[in-house]
Amino acid sequence: MINNSGRRKAAVARVYVKEGNGKITVNNREFEVYFPLPWHRTSITSPLSVTENEGKYDIVVNVRGGGQSGQAEAVRLGIAKALVDINGDQKSTLRHAGLLTRDSRVVERKKPGQKKARKRFQFSKR
After folding, report:
1. Contact 25, 35 (CB under 8 A)
2. Model's pTM, two decimal places?
3. What CA–CA distance (Å, rounded) separates 79 from 38?
4. Dihedral through CA 89, CA 90, CA 92, CA 96, nearest 10?
5. CA 6/CA 126 separation, integer angstroms
6. Where do the H-state alpha helices sit in 1-126?
7. N or C: which terminal CB in the chain sees fewer CB atoms within 10 Å?
8. 2-96 belongs to which CATH class?
9. For 98, left (φ over 0), alpha (ψ -120 to 50), or beta?
10. 46-72 tens-digit pLDDT
């Protein structure tokens, strides 16, 4: 069993990959139930489809923090890193598809004297 982690925004995913028949479980729930949006499911399974490993591994994921999109991309990174640990020859394929790069963008903090991070309060000349 190979375990790895992925991060995105405030989400952290711990991914456990082992030989199996392609079952994906997220937080003790079915993968389709936890991520109802189809593009989240496509994003998560993209490392498997790029490396042609669909149906070869059972994946168990524990994910915390953030929202659904951040969690989905954290799981995607964790799966990609675990596949590299299993077979190092797949690293160039996953790297070329952009699946091994951690997206470091996070929410900018709110500044004092402003409405949000960049939005100012309305200016009134008179």
Report:
1. no
2. 0.91
3. 18
4. 170
5. 52
6. 31-34, 38-50, 68-86, 91-96
7. C
8. alpha beta
9. left
10. 999 999 999 999 999 999 999 999 999
